[in-house]
Amino acid sequence: MSRKAARERRDRIRxxxxxxxxxxxxxxxxxxxKTLPKExxxxxxxxxxxxxxxxLGNELPGRGAWVKAERSAxxxxxxxxxxxxxxxxxxxxxxxxxxxxxxxxxxxxLGLLGLARKSGLIxxxxxxxxxxxxxxxxxxxxxxxxxxxxxxxxxxxxxxLAKAKAMELQAPICGLFSASExxxxxxxxxxxxxxxxxxxxxxxxxxxxxxxxxTAGFRAMMPxxxxxxxxxx
Length: 233
Hints:
- This protein has helices spanning 3-14, 71-79, 82-87, 97-118, 126-137, 154-166, 179-186, 204-215, and strands at residues 16-17, 26-28, 35-37, 41-46, 52-55, 64-68, 122-124, 143-148, 173-174, 193-197.
- Helix content is 40%, strand content 17%.
């Protein structure tokens, strides 16, 4: 067996890889053992000093280890020493490592909302969101996601979601972020209600939905505090 073939075989067994952009849309999670789409995973590499580094953009060189984008999967990988095995490093991530990963994902996802705002793809405010929903119903706009502050008042949220249900809006509801987080990302004061518009042939809204999906492994897409307030639609 050639040296390259031996290395690739070893990587398959350990759950690592040497090519972040490599062929194939799936990778094996070293924590769960499941083969999943790369969009549902987070890649990690060993830094210069052996520390485990999240590679959220799948761009860093070197051996990589893939873990499901979920706090429990990362915590298990730490507890079982799976990063050390896959990345051949002696440094164990801190127990708070998954919270650091969450922070990076939140920053990355909110950054995409900021780009969407600059591109004119964000609508904010209760009345303006409802008007945009009317425009969507008549084919004059395309809503990719409804954004509701996780700590916003229940009455406004109920009204918007009731309208979404009535018009059978096929767009996800995102309650991942607080009003302060949304406000900072969008450069506006007290953002409680917003919506993201589809960029047509563009990929910005799709990238946001992908990153929001990964962030939802660390925060609830619909917070527990919404229990009894939201009816699925």
